[in-house]
């Protein structure tokens, strides 16, 4: 990980980030101000993450994507007249306008050409829209250099992300009741009703993406936890395996054949996990086409907030999966898988 320099907050920055400083404190904002973030993939989800991180006041944001901007994309950062150009080039001006105090860097190369030295120059790496094997590779490099890693995707109304913070220490504010004075019986009830805020430090350990992806969640989780996330887990694996096998995401033009392929992958996953009951009906795959803005907004908002929490070391981070399906419910689901 890059060596940290002494960070100071200027008067202009203090004014701009006043609300955030009041919310999570000056030291947390200083940590954010030192953070260099790499964001891979600038679709709808990437655009939401880029927006939220830029507004938070990080030091720099490097946008990496070799693809071209397409019409009807969920990426709201691309002006209509720049459709057809590289998506990073097309999005750069609007990202920079969000916060001129953040250095925004455009990189139009393919992430597969990037070597280990490239990734070692960042404090946080977040990947989207990648084949899962490529995310395995990047996560392995990040672990070697003690760099927090995130990987997320949105398919239609369905979205999810993974977190690997290696060994992460964070501070949490908790309310504790003061101990009553033994010689002051009259004030026992008054003191018991009072509470004070105390900062408590915790440490969480994480596992790599590959270990979590290959985990037998049905066997590892208790029955209640598995019931809660089983459809999300099978959906995530089938979509990512589809991308790896087909070298693309499900397409509306191939709706019926792609749904059939997803069901084939689903059945293979369930056979490998020795699951007898069909967990996901084929109709669930009807809403995984494209990258829809509502799903991107929810998943991108939560993912960016998790990066902010990890960088600032404030509050408990997610460990280690977040799932969202806007077609069936409106609540995010968090579960620790692979531990």
Descriptive account of the structure:
This protein has about 350 residues and is of the alpha/beta class. About 40% of the residues lie in helices and about 20% in strands. The chain has helices at about 10-15, 20-25, 25-35, 45-55, 85-100, 115-120, 130-145, 190-195, 210-215, 215-220, 225-245, 255-270, 295-310; strands at about 35-40, 60-65, 105, 125-130, 150-155, 160-165, 165-175, 195-205, 320-325, 335. The strands form 2 sheets. The chain has an 8-stranded mixed beta sheet with strand order 3-2-1-4-5-6-9-10, sandwiched between helices. It is globular, with a radius of gyration of 22 Å.
Count of DSSP E strands?
Answer: 10
The portion of residues assigned to helices is 40-55%
- Rg is 22 Å
N-to-C span: 25 Å
Structural class: alpha/beta
The low-pLDDT segments are none
Task: Count helical runs.
Answer: 13
- What is the string of SSEs from the N terminus onward? HHHEHEHEHEHEEEHEHHHHHEE
The biggest beta sheet reads: 8 strands, mixed
User: Mean of residue pLDDT?
Assistant: 92
Inertia-based shape: globular
- The order of strands across the largest sheet is 3-2-1-4-5-6-9-10
Q: Which band does the percent of strand residues land in?
A: 15-25%
């Amino acid at each position: 990980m890059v060596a940290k320099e002494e960070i100071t907050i200027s008067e202009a920055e203090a004014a701009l980030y006043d609300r955030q400083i009041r919310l999570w404190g000056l030291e947390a904002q200083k940590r954010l101000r030192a953070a260099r973030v790499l964001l891979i993939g600038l679709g709808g989800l990437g655009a939401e993450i880029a927006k939220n991180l830029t507004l938070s006041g990080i030091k720099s944001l490097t946008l990496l994507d070799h693809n071209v901007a397409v019409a009807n994309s969920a990426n709201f950062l691309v002006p209509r007249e720049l459709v057809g150009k590289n998506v990073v080039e097309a999005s750069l001006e609007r990202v920079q306008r969000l916060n001129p105090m953040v250095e925004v860097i455009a990189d139009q190369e393919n992430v597969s050409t990037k070597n280990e030295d490239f990734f070692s120059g960042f404090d946080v790496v977040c990947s989207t829209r990648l084949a899962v094997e490529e995310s395995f590779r990047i996560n392995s490099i990040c672990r070697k250099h003690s760099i927090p890693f995130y990987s997320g995707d949105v398919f239609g109304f369905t979205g999810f992300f993974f977190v690997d913070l290696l060994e992460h220490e964070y501070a949490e504010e908790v309310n504790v009741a003061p101990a009553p004075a033994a010689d002051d019986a009259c004030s026992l009830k008054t003191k018991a009703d009072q509470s004070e805020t105390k900062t408590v430090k915790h440490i969480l350990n994480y596992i790599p993406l590959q270990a979590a992806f290959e985990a037998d969640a049905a066997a590892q989780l208790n029955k209640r936890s598995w019931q809660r996330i089983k459809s999300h887990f099978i959906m995530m694996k089938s979509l990512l395996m589809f991308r790896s096998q087909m070298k693309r995401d499900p397409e509306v033009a191939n709706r019926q054949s792609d749904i059939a392929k997803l069901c084939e992958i689903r059945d293979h996953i369930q056979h490998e996990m020795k699951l007898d009951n069909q967990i996901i009906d084929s109709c669930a795959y009807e809403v995984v086409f494209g990258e829809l803005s509502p799903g991107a907004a929810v998943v991108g908002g939560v993912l960016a907030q998790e990066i902010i929490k990890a960088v600032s070391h404030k509050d408990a981070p997610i460990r280690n999966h977040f799932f969202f399906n806007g077609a069936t419910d409106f609540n995010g689901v968090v579960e620790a898988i692979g531990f």
